[in-house]
Structure formats: C-alpha cells, structure tokens
Design brief:
Length: about 350
C-alpha cells in the first residue's frame, strides 16, 4: 500500500437548529465587521433570518446556476464597493460557487451555510461558465473557512430536489472510488458517505419533515464532498460539467440522471470499487443497489426532461472525450460515450 493523501483544513459545525448561533460565533472568531451575505432570491427570507445578528455590510441575492462570469464580476464589484471583510453564503451549490468566485480574486474568508446536499462547501474547487463552456479549477482561497451545517435549513427543500441533490452527493462518492487521485482513505470515506445517503434519502422521501433523514443526508453529503476534493474529478463529473456548460442543465438533476450510466460502464472494470459500493448500498451488486435506490426515490431519469436537445449528444460526446480523466477503469471511446449519453438523454436503462 502506497499513497499520498491531503486533508483540507476546515472546521465543521454540525448541529440542528443552531445555525444562527454558530454563525455568530464564527464571524466573531474571524474578527469580521463587514460581512457580505450571498443567498439566492428564493432564500432571501431564510438568509435574513439566519444572518440577522451578523454585521452585514451587503446582502447579495443575484445567484445563477454554473456561476456565469458576468454574475461573478458583479458580485466581486459589490464586495469591493462595500469594503467587505468576510463572505457568508447561505444556500445550495450555486450560492456557494458564487462565494468561491469572489474569494478566488479577493482572498476573503467564507463561512458556508448549506441548505442542500451539493457538497461544494467542503471542496477547494471553483467553477465559472463563459460562452457555454464551464471551466473548473482548484485553489486554497476558495475553500470555506467553516461549514455551518443545520439540517433544519433543509426541511423546506422539496422531496424531488432533495432526491436530486442527494444523488449528486452519491455521485461524488461513486466517482471518488476511481477518480485520478483516489486512495484508500477516499474509498473508506466514500463508502460511509454512500451508506449514510442510502439510509437518509429514503427517510427524507418518506418523511420530508423529519430530521433523522435530513441529518443522515447532510452528513453523507459532507463526506461525499471531502472525498471528491481529495480524489479529483472522475469521468462522471467530467460528463456533467460538459453537459451543464453546453446546455445550462440543472446541476443536481444532471448528476442524478448520468450516475447509473457511468456506474454501469465502469463497475465491471473496477471489481474492488464495485464490491465497496454494493456493500454500502446493502445490495448484491453496485448497479442493482443503485437501481433499487433510484426506484425507491423516483429519481430523475432523462436528460431530455431538463432541456438537453438530442442534436447535442454527439458534440457533447466529443467534448467529453477530450476531457476523460487518466486512469478511468473502463476504456472510453466516442462510440461508448455517445451510447451512454443517448441512453441518459432518453431515460433508457443503463447498458
């Protein structure tokens, strides 16, 4: 056994019904006196409630999927204009992504308060979209200083969005089994993340107002992000970044649709990872366990349901082929990627 593993330096505060108090403590510890709170319009009321006791210099509510460059530039200008000394982002992956875009050029510390299972809050990965092309990178400046997890903040997330967001987290775990920098620590954490999500997501679907399922899902989502940050971006994420950038598809639903198809492609060529995923899903096989979970959750099934045109399959496949990460377990060629995307587009069974 031989590997190198980096653990990112970050504080996690996990407690239900404690976000406001924990946020105050963190801002005081940072010594910040002019905070910029970033939250989408849909979460304006929640953000104002959670951050009511902070020294807020600017409330910023312009948030867009995939962080368009022009949206990031406007947020950066507002941060400068209001002489901001810390960022608080309250919301999902797009909100966290915008805070990261500001931190990337300013170095401002971020305190992240997630309201979905996106996981962006636990990574040093940033992403920006320009001219229908999404660019990603890593930088220590974009890693939030602290994550404040509070499962009560996810209670208003509808079941269908909870399912899509949770399956996005599951995709982080699965991809981290064979991503370019995957190591034994990543695989162990990924297995625990899959187990937690397998327990939590059905509970969320069955009892949306219950905290047990929400807490399991949030815990699993955190683990999924930690392993993604360590292992790097595997084939699944390369595919989803291409699709999101080219067609402006919703992030979580795209991941939820694509996941079973990439698993079906890679699992036969990665027997150890396949066994780990199957065990975490409490199933005889990884593909069978995921199929059972997706059926139980009534998961998203077809990319065409979210606006991807059939004519986009071939150009997307060509773009994916140019971005295939090194060491993918299964051989990747234009024909099998085209077939995978077509099956995902029409909602066919993985093959």
């Amino acid at each position: 056994m031989r590997f190198d593993h980096d653990t990112l330096a970050q504080r996690v505060r996990f407690a239900s019904a404690a976000a406001a108090a924990n946020l105050v403590d963190e801002i005081k510890e940072l010594g910040a006196t002019r905070v910029m709170v970033i939250a989408a319009e849909a979460e304006r009321e929640l953000a104002h409630r959670v951050a009511a006791q902070l020294p807020v210099a600017h409330w910023h509510h312009e948030v867009a999927m995939h962080v368009p460059v022009e949206v990031a530039e406007r947020a950066r200008k507002q941060a400068a204009a209001h002489r901001v000394d810390a960022l608080v982002c309250i919301g999902g992956g797009s909100t966290t992504g915008l805070a990261k875009a500001v931190a990337l050029t300013t170095g401002l510390p971020i305190v992240a308060v997630p309201t979905t299972y996106a996981g962006s809050e636990a990574t040093n990965v940033w992403g920006l979209t320009e001219h229908s092309r999404k660019t990603t990178g890593t930088d220590p400046r974009v890693l939030p200083h602290t994550i404040v997890y509070d499962a009560t903040l996810t209670l208003t997330l509808p079941v269908d969005l909870s399912v899509a967001s949770g399956l996005n987290a599951l995709a982080h775990c699965v991809d981290s089994m064979w991503a370019p920098r995957a190591d034994p620590i990543d695989r162990a954490l990924a297995g625990e993340g899959i187990r937690a999500l397998r327990i939590g997501l059905p509970l969320v679907a069955a009892e949306p107002g219950g905290l047990e399922g929400r807490e399991h899902a949030l815990y699993g989502a955190y683990l999924s992000a930690v392993v993604f940050a360590s292992a790097g971006s595997g084939l699944h994420h390369k595919i989803c970044h291409v699709l999101g950038g080219m067609f402006d598809l919703p992030h979580a639903q795209t991941h939820a649709v694509v996941l079973p198809h990439v698993l079906a492609l890679n699992a036969p060529s990665a027997p150890d990872a396949e066994r780990r995923i199957a065990a975490a899903l409490d199933a005889d096989s990884a593909t069978g366990g995921l199929a059972r979970l997706r059926t139980e959750l009534d998961a998203p099934r077809a990319l065409r349901d979210y606006g991807m045109p059939e004519s986009g399959i071939l150009p997307a496949a060509e773009a994916v082929l140019a971005a295939v990460p090194p060491g993918n377990p299964a051989p990747v060629a234009l024909d099998n990627i085209t077939g995978l995307l077509h099956a995902a587009w029409e909602g066919a069974e993985p093959r």
